Amino acid sequence: MPVQDWSEDIVVVDLLNDPELTDELTSLTERLEREAKDVVLNFSQVKFLNSSNISRLLKLRKILIDRERRLYLCQIPIQVWGVFLLTGLDTLFDVAEDTATALASLQMK
After folding, report:
1. For FRET with 97, which of 28, 46, 71, 75 sits at 20 to 30 Å CA-CA?
2. Where in the sequence is the domain holding 70, given as residue range(s)?
3. Alpha-carbon distance 40 to 105, whole Å?
4. Cβ neighbourhood burial of 81 (10 Å; 0-12, 13-18, 19+)
5. Measuring CA to CA, which residue among 54, 62, 66, 60 is closest to residue 40?
């Protein structure tokens, strides 16, 4: 999984397209159940988002909220952003244009 521990409290993940996306989200969720960190998910390589991965994103969001941590999504391609708009997920997640903006937002908390 292309995970970068950006700081002691922040993890940046460059997500890949399926089938790797499913594995990445599952592994990340398992990791964050053990350790509390803020997360930035870079979607630039994701071409499609299916319902099971939407479910994984929602589970990840819940874990982070329960641990009082934050999640930012960034660089979401237009076809994936359409899924967020159609499902109403755009109102549930914090979204930034790019990784640098997401990291800056997390550091300003």
Report:
1. 28
2. 3-107
3. 10
4. middle
5. 60
- Over residues 59-91, the pLDDT tens digits come to 999 999 999 999 999 999 999 999 999 999 999
Confidence (pTM): 0.93
Please tell me the distance from the alpha carbon of residue 105 to that of residue 84, in angstroms, as a whole number: 21
Q: DSSP secondary structure string, the chain?
A: --EEE-SSSEEEEE--STTHHHHHHHHHHHHHHHS--EEEEE-TT-----HHHHHHHHHHHHHHHHTT--EEEE---HHHHHHHHHHTGGGTSEEESSHHHHHHHHHT-
- Domains in the chain: how many in total? 1
d(CA 91, CA 3): 25
